[in-house]
């Protein structure tokens, strides 16, 4: 009988039976056993301050008591029923999300992940518009299914160029890169919109939708200026093209200033379709699509989701949402996030080219001594941070951006402690490279 807490034994078994392309950040993967608040523990008894929240899923807190209680109570009543039957938590959650979405006459379809939510959104948009032509942003990430890989512009996450969709990639997701980087914000937006118009003119015909993250997540917590999507929306509206806002990372107050990422571009009103996942379940497998009724109802055929909207996940998500709103965690993300950004900027380390972000969605872009993107520095910071008891993420086109996204309940004290640990990890990584 093998010892389940022997890390080398578990790593060996993991590498034998799981695909080689499954990403893990560390040379020696970490086995997490439990969590509380903003902390997690591994099988060796090490405690970590969690600055990545299980890839932005742990929204309120680890093992959040209200969520755990709601799940346990629901599990004692009925575990599962599929969308063939109704459950009160599913209907209540749909009502609340429809209301919160800002989309008029909204309907909600639940899925079990962000990939599936975007897949459903693409299915709806292409069916509604009777076209398989789709616009997506360069450097984007939308999931791991065949259709969502087909709209993922970040090549590191697109293992195949085959797709059921014909995708056209648009500028605008990265402010500091590409042909328009030297322009003012207003000039950048105008140039991206003109490029979009030009693209549509060249393609002709019918384009179904633009799918875009308001702030690119896997792409390195990067975005165009506020107002970009409002300007895009005016172009899209002229052509009858739907705007799908992928809020898988940016939803539920994560960005502090707004409940949804699209609200930073609010001039043109809400998107036609919004997708969500990650934070709403606080770790439970939950995603979904919100769309105007005429779009949502366009599919003529029968549809079902065996697990989407299950009583367990919707009961847990309802408790999570209630806590998030009651405690004003969006406001907390805004305040604590600003302190964290301030502390990281103040450190003034040469390895850091930029600290950017909103609320508790903070990107730290790293460069080498040659001022070029340094993925090696990012890997080194992650390892040093682990030694110091801090978990963070990384991403970006070159893999050189640290991604910081703790649970939104992060206290000011924890933010200061985490900033100190991260600055020390950055100093150590900097020393490694000299
Ligand atoms: N969309 C965005 C913006 C994401 O960041 C992700 C995952 O990181 C997805 C979609 C896919 O979500 P999931 O991993 O739940 O399938």
UniProtKB/TrEMBL annotation:
Cited CDD domains: OAT_like (cd00610)
Any Pfam family: Aminotran_3
Entry-linked InterPro entries: Aminotrans_3, PyrdxlP-dep_Trfase, PyrdxlP-dep_Trfase_major, PyrdxlP-dep_Trfase_small
KW Protease (keyword) present: no
Keyword terms of this UniProt record: Aminotransferase, Pyridoxal phosphate, Transferase
Single GO term (MF): transaminase activity
Entry similarity comment: Belongs to the class-III pyridoxal-phosphate-dependent aminotransferase family.
PANTHER family named in the record: ALANINE--GLYOXYLATE AMINOTRANSFERASE 2, MITOCHONDRIAL (PTHR45688:SF3), PTHR45688
Name listed for the protein in its UniProt record: alanine--glyoxylate transaminase
Organism: Streptacidiphilus cavernicola
């Amino acid at each position: 009988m093998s010892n389940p807490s022997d890390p080398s034994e578990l790593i060996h078994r993991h590498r034998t039976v799981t695909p080689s392309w499954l990403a893990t950040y560390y040379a020696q993967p970490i086995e997490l056993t439990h969590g509380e608040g903003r902390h997690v523990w591994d099988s060796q008894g090490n405690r970590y301050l969690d600055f990545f929240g299980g890839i932005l899923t742990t929204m309120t807190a680890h093992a959040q008591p209200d969520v755990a209680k709601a799940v346990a109570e629901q599990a004692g009543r009925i575990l599962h029923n599929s969308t063939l039957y109704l459950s009160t938590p599913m209907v209540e959650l749909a009502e609340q999300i429809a209301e919160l979405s800002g989309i008029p006459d909204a309907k909600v379809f639940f899925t079990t992940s962000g990939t599936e939510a975007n897949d459903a959104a693409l299915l709806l948009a292409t069916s509604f518009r009777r076209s398989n032509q789709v616009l997506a942003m360069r450097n984007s990430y939308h999931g791991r299914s065949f259709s969502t890989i087909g709209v993922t512009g970040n090549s590191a996450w697109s293992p195949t160029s085959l797709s059921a969709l014909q995708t056209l990639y648009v500028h605008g997701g990265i402010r500091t890169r590409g042909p328009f980087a030297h322009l003012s914000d207003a000039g950048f937006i105008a140039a991206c919109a003109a490029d979009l118009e030009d693209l549509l003119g060249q393609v002709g015909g019918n384009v179904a939708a633009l799918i875009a993250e308001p702030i690119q997540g896997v792409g390195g917590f990067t975005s165009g200026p506020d107002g970009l999507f409002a300007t895009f929306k005016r172009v899209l509206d002229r052509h009858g093209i739907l705007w799908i806002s992928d809020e898988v990372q940016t939803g539920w107050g994560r960005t502090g200033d707004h409940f949804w990422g699209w609200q930073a571009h609010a001039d043109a009103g809400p998107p036609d379709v919004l997708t969500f996942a990650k934070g709403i379940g606080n770790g439970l497998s939950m995603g979904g699509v919100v769309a105007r009724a005429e779009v949502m109802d366009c599919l003529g055929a029968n549809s079902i989701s065996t697990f989407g909207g299950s009583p367990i996940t919707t009961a847990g998500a309802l408790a999570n949402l209630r806590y998030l709103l009651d405690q004003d965690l969006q406001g907390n993300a805004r305040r604590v996030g600003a302190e964290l950004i301030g502390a990281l900027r103040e450190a003034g380390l040469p390895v850091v080219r930029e600290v950017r972000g909103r609320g508790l969605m903070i990107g730290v872009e790293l460069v080498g001594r040659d001022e070029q993107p340094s993925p090696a520095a990012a890997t080194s910071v992650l390892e040093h941070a682990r030694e110091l008891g801090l978990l963070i993420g990384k991403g970006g086109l070159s893999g050189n951006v640290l991604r910081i996204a703790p649970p939104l309940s992060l206290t000011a004290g924890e933010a200061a402690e985490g900033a100190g640990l991260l600055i020390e990890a950055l100093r150590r990584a900097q020393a490694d490279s000299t």
